[in-house]
Automatic annotation (TrEMBL):
Required cofactor names: FAD
Pfam family, one: Pyr_redox_2
PANTHER family in alphabetical order: 64 KDA MITOCHONDRIAL NADH DEHYDROGENASE (EUROFUNG), APOPTOSIS-INDUCING FACTOR 1
Name of the protein in its database record: FAD-dependent oxidoreductase
Domain (FAD/NAD(P)-binding): residue spans on this chain: 3-285
Amino acid sequence: MRKFVILGGGYGGLALIQGLLNNHFPQDMELILIDRMPFQGIKTEYYALAAGTASDYDLRIQFPNHPQLTKKYGEVTSIDLEGKRVHLEGDDPIEYDYLTIALGCTDRYHGIPGADQFTNSIQTFSSTRQTYQRLNDVKPYGNVHIIGGGLSGVETAAELRESRPDLNITILDRGSRVLSSFPQTVSLYVEQWFMDHEVNTRSHISVCRVEDGIVYNGDEAIYTDAAVWTGGIQPVKVVQDLNVPKDPGGRVVVNTYSQIPDYPEVYVVGDCASIPFAPSAQAAGAQARQVADVIHALWKGETPKIHKIHLRGTLGSLGSKAGFGLMGKTSVKGRVPRLLKSGVLWKSRRHFG
């Protein structure tokens, strides 16, 4: 029996599974999902787990059951593209006829000494659990610093403020304003929300090293009781180690069909793929659905029709009652985008669960 292996059960991996199984999946093929966890973690909400406003259980979606789907739990250590096998920690290798890499991203520390050792992460379920423990063990009136003023940093700071009104919270950002990828009107709205809720923001911060309890901005020592890193992402190490062409961000260069050109039996989806979108759950899901259509067409001996991916926009939360976003070219602020984000989360749970 032929084997179609999918590495990673996140948004891209699950969307691909659904797209393959819902459209006459070949009877002589086994679909194998490999993930380190026995469920999908809703990564877009990890900031809430870290802050303590959502429970571990709230952010789980069970993987689907299907007669042709085998679920294998373990840590992928390497991918042998020439030998067509995946190596797992402490387990036998798994051979494949087709492979999809949808392993997501990890923190990018930009070579800053101590950043990986002395800051907390929200990139995996496990690391987010540890971040929750660290943040909620900070004593009243303690100092917490969020390094990075993008979407994840803003949502983490706002959610932590709602969870711990006693803490001194500061965002350290290298740019001139938080949410630099959004229109300035959105940044100003968020800045005002932070002022109203006593969250400090500092711009033009160039973190050069991190020590236990200290973040250095050049020669300035910023003392902290806990620091959370939201200052950049990159593909996971397994993908970094692949000897294939990559873009400047370390993402694998793929062709029109999302295949690695020299290995057409291998597809790359989501944060690991060099596609014309910023890494996001929405982009990963949309690309995966496109890949499922491509695969079915190729199996039928047809030329795949590539439809342009259109993303709906980006939504962010400021606690439970306010939010912000960008829908097309339209900025949205206030209660409505927060309600919209809650609706998207509900729909995602219902769709995948």
